Each structure stands twice: as structure tokens, then as C-alpha cells.
Amino acid sequence: YKGEGILPASPQDVWECIKPVAGGLRTKWDQNVKDFEVIEAISDAVFVCRTTTPSAFMRVISPREFVDVVLMKQYEDGTMLSAATNVEHPLCPPQPNFVRGFNYPCGCFCVPVPGEPDRTQLLTFFQTDLGGYLPQTVVDSFFPSSISGFYSNLTKAVKALKA
User: Is 35 or 138 the better-scoring residue by pLDDT?
Assistant: First the structure.
């Protein structure tokens, strides 16, 4: 799934809200992220992380956990990105009460809008296998509304950050 939108905030403010860091803002505004923890820092830019999600879709989807290797990078033009993919890690075996999901290569790109310092183009790419025994119709119904909610809630979060 791909999401794309222009947000009314600087790339730095958008990045502050979405960057995948322990104790970051993402768990406060993203209804699909319950907790985020760094399992291992490989370098200043590469981390193994565990993300947990609450139950969703009227509890049809039970809580999930994802373990990913995440790369964060900033380019000379001001674009910031996080890219991730599933990884297994000995310090993070599957936990009880969670279904282990898998992220295939995915990411978020915060791209400056030329000449508009308080606007950011956000591109998101999701390739997620939620795991478990969900009917494909449930998955197909969940993701579009989830992505729409992501952009809506992020817009509110960046506005609150500036207030």
C-alpha cells in the first residue's frame, strides 16, 4: 500500500512525529502503534526495533508485534526517511498475547516542498503481513482506513506540536 499527502508542517516537525525512536511521539498519536522499543543499535542510523499494535478493526485483529531492522537517513535536500524490513533477533522471540506480523520492505519519506518551508510531502509504503489467520477481506478492509487515519492523526499531531 502507498500513501501520499502534503502536511501543513516543516519536514523537521513531521519527522519529529513519525521517527521510529523509543519514547518518541508516534505512540501518542498513531492509533496503530502501542509501543516501540529499540532491541539493538547496530549503528547511529540502523536499529533493530520491536513495535506492538493494539487490537484493531473492532477487535477482529488481535494485538500484533513486528521486529524490524530500521534505517534512518537524511539527504542533502532535507528529505528524511525511515526504511524497514522484517528481521529475526535472538533478543526478541515471539511474545505471548501477540501475533507476530511481518513487514516486507517499507518506509516513510518526508520530502521538503520547494519554496514552502512549512509544508512537507509525506510518502509512505507499507507491505505488511499481519500474520495469524485473518481472512484477506478483513486485511483488505483494514489497510486503506488505517492509512487514511494515519495521515489524519499525523496532521493533528504536527499542528499540536506547533501550538
Answer: 35
